[in-house]
């Protein structure tokens, strides 16, 4: 038994040398294989979730993401919906003031109204339903602004 | 292994090799590093980059040749390891300055997944990845600079090859506190209570649980000292100002001041959660560090020298260092009787420690040389730019 263990130990020790080569030569392939086999993606808490609706306004468009309530073991009680305002070429900047009503759950009724001051990077939120709690600070994109509106999950 | 049996030092001391055997190990290293560091048949056309590549290759192979010839591991490993850390900073920061104009990570970078992924995040991502199949880090899964999948693939590979040895042979941050731990001649603080060595495991538990709860990489947001020399969230609120103060304080305390005062790697040995996490992978490795207690004269050189707090009387009696051992080789080099040695798993105490050492240092050095090559080349390139143009930036 000890001889077998010894042979296994030395074999593994020798194999680590080609393993280094295989690791570096095939790193991109290993990474792709790992990503594909696990199917992992970046958390919507980082990305803002998938864009589910884009509203065109000529010089700019409003992108509404899906509401994010994703939790570790199930949906969380609190989450957010992310709204992006992005300039559409040839425009490179947003209008100074944008006023918009957003229907994030697509039920045909506006859920909140926003007044965005793209120059001062400030947003005023008016909740139109109790699930809308408030908003975080305006985040800057090169050609747009991003706002996350805090939500309470509907029971 | 019978740790108590007496064996002659000659059978366990990794002896210096003659020139024939040295070249037999060094020439394959030269060829493999040339192949992997060049990354293909097309050498860089830019003179600065070509000089940096050749210098990095020569540096690596000189160190490996000395390592094999002298039979000493630590000082040559440390030279390259420290160069990686400084090369990393010299590459990363000027790149950021060229791309963004400053080191601050903007909201746009995070929203668009442009944050480079770092190995320290890995333990925090595992539970959320297992339960939600998402990675709680604002990077990109594939592509970009330091993609998430690339770093995971590397982590699996280096865990198999090195285990916790990553902390002394791979980590591009570890060389910083290793550098500062080598500055003073003698330690000002000699005794550190053993209870502090459990702190990294507590930090690990804290950040893993808090990250899973918050679905946010809490260590990166609140505790990483190396934000100071890489990138940090743009300071645009009181919360972020507090975070910046924490990053700076931890860097000054754990990476500079305490290593100088203790001559130990305090960030790596007393705080880093990734090191603690990586300890769990050391059982995968073919070669470990073992102590032949019968040959030990209790001189204490290993215990005083161990930068990772892995050796003490209990560990010596047990015949192996604590989990925090990062296989730097310092104790093996310091032991006057050869009682501490590298050993292939499954082999006995009477096995040839010189062979075990070579079977460990060859893949470990090859990994370190290739993984760190880009950072050393990048650092040299920036220094060459500084000398020839007066600026680190292009």
Q: In the CATH classification, which architecture of the domain at 1-15 and 286-351 in chain B applies?
A: 2-Layer Sandwich
Class by SSE composition of chain B: mainly alpha
Number of domains of chain A: 2
Please tally the helical runs of chain B, counting DSSP H or I stretches of 4 or more residues.
Answer: 18
Q: Structural class given helices, strands, pairing of chain A?
A: alpha+beta
| Average of the residue pLDDT scores of chain A | 94
The top-level CATH class of the domain at 1-15 and 286-351 in chain B is Alpha Beta
CA-based gyration radius of chain A: 24 Å
- Major sheet attributes of chain B: 2 strands, parallel
- Tell me the helix content of chain A: 25-40%
CATH fold-type name of the domain at 1-15 and 286-351 in chain B: Alpha-Beta Plaits
Low-confidence stretches of chain A: none
Q: Into which percentage range does the β-strand content of chain B fall?
A: under 5%
Anisotropy-based shape of chain A: elongated
Order of helices and strands of chain A: HHEHEEEEEEEEE
Largest interface: A-B, 48 and 59 residues
Describe this structure in words.
The complex is a heterodimer of chains A (155) and B (394). Chain A has 155 residues and is an alpha+beta fold. Chain A contains 3 helices and 10 strands; from the N terminus they run ααβαβββββββββ. In chain A, strands 2, 3, 4, 8, 9 and 10 form a 6-stranded antiparallel beta sheet that branches. Chain A has a 3-stranded antiparallel beta sheet with strand order 5-6-7, with no helix packed on it. In chain A, a hairpin with a 2-residue loop joins strand 9 (139-141) and strand 10 (144-152). With 394 residues, chain B is mainly α. Chain B has a domain at 1-15 and 286-351: Alpha-Beta Plaits (2-Layer Sandwich), CATH 3.30.70.20. Helix content of chain B is 58%, strand content 4%. Chain B contains 18 helices and 5 strands. Chain B has helices spanning 9-12, 19-38, 47-70, 74-100, 107-111, 122-132, 148-161, 166-169, 174-181, 199-214, 218-223, 238-262, 266-270, 273-278, 301-305, 313-318, 330-334, 353-389; strands at residues 104-105, 134-135, 232-233, 287-291, 340-344. In chain B, strands 1-3 form a two-stranded parallel ribbon. Chain B has a two-stranded antiparallel ribbon with strand order 4-5. In chain B, helix 2 packs antiparallel against helix 3, helix 3 runs antiparallel to helix 18 and helix 4 runs parallel beside helix 18 (353-389). The longest helix of chain B is centred in the last third of the chain and has 37 residues, at 353-389. Mean pLDDT of chain B is 92; it is low at 1-14. Classes of the chains: A alpha+beta (155), B mainly alpha (394). At the A-B interface, helix 1, helix 2, strand 1, helix 3 and strand 9 of A face helix 5, helix 6, strand 2, helix 7 and helix 18 of B.
């Amino acid at each position: 038994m000890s001889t077998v263990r010894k042979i296994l130990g030395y074999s593994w020790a020798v194999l680590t040398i080609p393993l280094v080569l295989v690791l570096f030569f095939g790193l991109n392939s290993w990474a792709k294989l790992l990503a594909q086999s696990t199917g992992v993606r970046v958390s919507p808490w980082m990305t803002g979730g998938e864009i589910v609706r884009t509203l065109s306004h000529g010089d700019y468009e409003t992108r509404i993401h899906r509401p994010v309530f994703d939790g570790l073991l199930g949906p969380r009680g609190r989450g957010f919906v992310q709204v992006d305002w992005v300039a559409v070429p040839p425009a490179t900047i947003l209008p100074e003031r944008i006023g918009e009503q957003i229907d994030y759950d697509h039920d045909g009724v506006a859920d909140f109204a926003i007044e965005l001051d793209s120059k001062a990077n400030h947003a005023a939120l008016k909740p139109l339903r109790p699930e809308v709690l408030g908003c975080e600070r305006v985040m800057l994109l090169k050609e747009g602004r991003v706002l996350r509106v805090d939500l309470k999950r509907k029971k | 292994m019978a740790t108590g049996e007496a064996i002659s030092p000659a059978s366990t001391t990794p002896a210096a090799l003659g020139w024939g055997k040295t070249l037999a190990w060094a020439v394959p290293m030269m060829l493999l590093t040339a192949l992997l560091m060049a990354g293909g048949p097309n050498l860089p056309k830019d003179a600065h980059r070509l000089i940096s590549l050749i210098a990095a290759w020569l540096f690596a192979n000189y160190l490996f040749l000395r390592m094999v010839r002298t039979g000493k591991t630590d000082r040559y490993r440390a030279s390259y390891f420290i160069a990686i850390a400084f090369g990393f900073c010299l590459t990363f920061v000027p790149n950021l300055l060229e791309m963004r104009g400053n080191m601050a990570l903007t909201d746009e970078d995070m929203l668009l997944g442009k944050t480079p992924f770092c190995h320290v995040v890995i333990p925090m991502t595992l539970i959320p990845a297992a339960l939600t199949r998402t990675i709680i880090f604002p990077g990109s899964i594939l592509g970009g600079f330091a993609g998430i999948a690339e770093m995971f693939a590397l982590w699996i590979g280096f865990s198999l090859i090195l285990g916790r040895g990553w902390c002394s042979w791979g980590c591009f941050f570890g060389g910083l506190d290793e550098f500062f731990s080598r500055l003073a001649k003698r330690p000002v603080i000699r005794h550190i209570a053993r209870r502090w060595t459990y702190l990294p495991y507590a930090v690990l538990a804290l950040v893993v649980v808090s990250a899973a709860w918050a679905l946010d990489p809490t260590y990166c947001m609140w505790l990483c000292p190396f934000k100071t020399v890489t990138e940090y969230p743009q300071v645009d609120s009181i919360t972020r100002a507090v975070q910046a103060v924490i990053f700076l304080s931890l860097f000054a305390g754990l990476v500079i001041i305490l290593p100088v005062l203790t001559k130990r790697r305090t960030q790596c040995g007393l705080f880093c959660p990734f090191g603690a996490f990586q300890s769990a992978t050391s059982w995968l490795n073919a070669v470990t560090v073992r102590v032949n207690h019968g040959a030990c004269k209790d001189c204490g050189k290993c215990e005083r020298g161990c930068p990772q707090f892995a050796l003490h009387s209990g560990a010596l009696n047990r015949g192996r260092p604590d989990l925090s051992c990062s296989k730097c080789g310092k104790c093996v080099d310091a032991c006057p009787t050869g009682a501490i040695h590298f050993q292939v798993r499954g082999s006995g105490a009477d096995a040839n420690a010189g062979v075990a050492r070579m079977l460990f240092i060859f893949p470990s050095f090859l990994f370190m040389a290739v993984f760190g090559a880009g950072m050393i080349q990048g650092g040299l390139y920036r220094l060459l730019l500084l000398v020839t143009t007066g600026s680190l930036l292009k």
